[in-house]
Amino acid sequence: MNLFHFEFFQNALLAGILVSIACAVIGTYVVINRIVFITGGIAHAAYGGIGLGVFLGLNPVVGAVIFSLMAALGMGTVSYKTKQRIDTLIGVMWAVGMAIGIIFADLTHGYQAGLMSYLFGSILTISKTDLVLMGGLDILVVGMAILFYRQWLSISFDPEFSEIMGLPVKRFYLLLLSLTALTVVVVMRMVGIIMVIALLTIPPAIANRFFTSLKKIMAFACLLGILFTVAGMVISFYLDLTSGAMIILVAGVAYFVSLAVTPKRERAKNVL
Amino acid sequence: MVKKAVIRLEHVTASYDGHTALEDVTLTVYEGDFLGIIGPNGGGKTTLLKVILGLVKPERGHVEVLGTTPSQARHRIGYVPQAIDFDPDFPIQVVDVVRMGCLKYLKFGNGGYQGCQENINQVMRQMGVWDLRDRQMGRLSGGERQRVLIARALVTDPEILLLDEPTASVDSQFQSTIYEVLSRLNEKMTICLVSHDIGVISSYVEKVACLNQQLFYHGEKEITEEMLMKTYRCPVDLIAHGVPHRVLKHHG
Q1: With contact defined as beta carbons under 8 Å apart, do A187 and A24 qualify?
Q2: pLDDT band of A216, cuts 50, 70, 90
Q3: Which residue is closest to A155 within chain B, CA to CA?
Q4: Domain ranges of chain B
Q5: Which residue, among B52, B66, B92, would best test binding to A if mutated, counting the most A CBs under 10 Å from its CB?
Q6: Which fold, B5-91+159-251?
Q7: Which residues of B touch A35 (CB under 8 A)?
């Protein structure tokens, strides 16, 4: 029995590759901007949208997009204005988003099982529509990243100086968060809301230990993401375990191994 | 010949992070000046620079830079911040930091971006950071970083150079090198720097002002006892270090 002959697995494989591309690009910015928890807040707020979508009989993804974009713009605006207490706001949006989702699920008769798949992902039921959506996201995200490479690098490193240089810093920041929100919604289908942060942050975080240029980090993170998703799917299939969780476990193990290896810091100490 | 005023603040009051940092500050900086502003930490020095750059809007008063508003003029100012709060693992190479200075040509452009790129090489050699160009910014020493930030400000080809504590993280040997570089740059541009280090500042700059919410400035390189008393209202640690006495001996 060869796994790679099944259509569902081919779809899952392709989804893994497509999602890894978007995650590598957006995740790199998330990591270097230290907005991992804003991203977590966006992901969990999206659950409110899923609940609302189910309740109204709409496509839950539409609800998720609306809620996650609102959360991204809201938190982005507040965190841009004041650097204080943003973690509290993130925590509140995180929990309230989930609560809204659960209440709407309660109010909806019958249809409950589908909601679980958004929490934990369902990579093996990826449809052709999902693949098209993921491909579209990749084109958007990669295109933006190439187009605004210098601007985003500059703003991530030193927003104040970038503003003096005439860059619309706030607009770029909100654009980044909006792309993050879209990525979260798409990746959610794969590994679920709860584990989305891991797929966004682990590959770039590992890559950052080995490379010092943004381009190289993105490329290497992309390869790592593909490796983790494929390995996780194969293992989960043979052991009959949840695929999303297995992907994250593989990624997590790789992350801790990379912490143990730490080539970059050692070298840097010698130089200084 | 009457010199042109490049920075003009009139009765400016501004707050930062919720408390008043500048109170009724009036200051005129003329073209070609080399002005040092001293004052205690928390005395509003950084806020003053941010007001000039238009990053902090004053509550009262009027600010004019290069004959226009601060936000209109700020791309013509080279700004060297005291320290950038960034992760040492941040993936940016030294040459990319310097290249940030060229970003203004994307907006204020006319194809200046290409010329700016060619300028990078020369400016980095001038600041002695060309050999560091491929290094990661977070792996440099404090002094090296400072030179990179000055280089970044210089590739913008500024008319005014603003520096915030340019020698704060630099070893004493390199402090004088930085000031010598600044003296040479002063032939081409107006320089305004702020520091809490009275000793270093007074031996290089042309004019000195004292700032502790209020600004005391006679347009000369002279710090009077009165200025110091007003600036350092509670100068316990300063007197303990004997710094004012040294300055007064040199210039009193």
Answers
A1: no
A2: very high
A3: B100
A4: 5-91+159-251
A5: B92
A6: Rossmann fold (3.40.50)
A7: none
DSSP A6-75: SHHHHHHHHHHHHHHHHHHHHHHHHHHTT-HHHHHHHHHHHHHHHHHHHHHTS-HHHHHHHHHHHHHHHH
Is the pLDDT higher at B158 or at B172? B158
CA distance B157 to B180: 19
Which is the CATH superfamily of the domain at A11-264? ABC transporter involved in vitamin B12 uptake, BtuC (1.10.3470.10)
Q: Which of A16-20, A71-75, A262-266, B215-219 has the lowest mean pLDDT?
A: A262-266
- Determine the pLDDT at residue B1: 57
Within an 8 Å CB–CB cutoff, is residue B216 touching chain A? no
- Contact between A162 and B103 using a beta-carbon 8 Å cutoff: yes
Distance CA B50, CA B215 (A): 15
> What percent of chain A stands above pLDDT 90?
57
* Predicted pLDDT at B83: 75
What is the ipTM metric for this complex? 0.84
Residue in the structure block whose two tokens are 């409950």: A112
CA distance B53 to A176: 26
Q: Which residues of A touch B (CB under 8 A)?
A: 32, 34, 150-151, 153-154, 156-158, 160-167, 208-209, 211-214, 217, 264, 268, 271-272
Query: Looking at the predicted structure, is the pLDDT value of residue A269 above 60?
Result: no
> Are A154 and B103 an interchain contact pair (Cβ–Cβ within 8 Å)?
yes
| CA neighbours closer than 13 Å in the CB half-sphere of residue A139 | 6
Stretch B169-186: mean pLDDT: 79
Closest chain B C-alpha to A263 CA, distance in angstroms: 13
Q: What is the DSSP letter of A125?
A: G
| Contacts A153 to B, Cβ<8 Å | 92, 96
Size of interface A-B (CB pairs under 8 A): 77
- Number of CB atoms found within 10 A of residue B127's CB: 23
Nearest by CB to A157, from B75, B92, B135: name it. Answer: B92
Residues of chain B contacting residue A208, judged by C-beta atoms under 8 Å apart: 89, 91
Work out the percent of chain A whose per-residue pLDDT is above 70: 93
Mean pLDDT of A85-114: 84
Residues of B in Cβ contact (< 8 Å) with A212: 91-93, 136
Q: What is the pLDDT of residue A113?
A: 67
- Kind of pairing between the strands at B160-164 and B34-38: unpaired
Q: Map tokens 């003029």 to a residue.
A: B73
Q: Is the pLDDT of residue B78 over 90?
A: yes
Strand (E) or helix (H) holding B212: strand B207-212
For A129, list phi and psi in degrees, rounded to 5: -60, -45
SS3 B86: coil
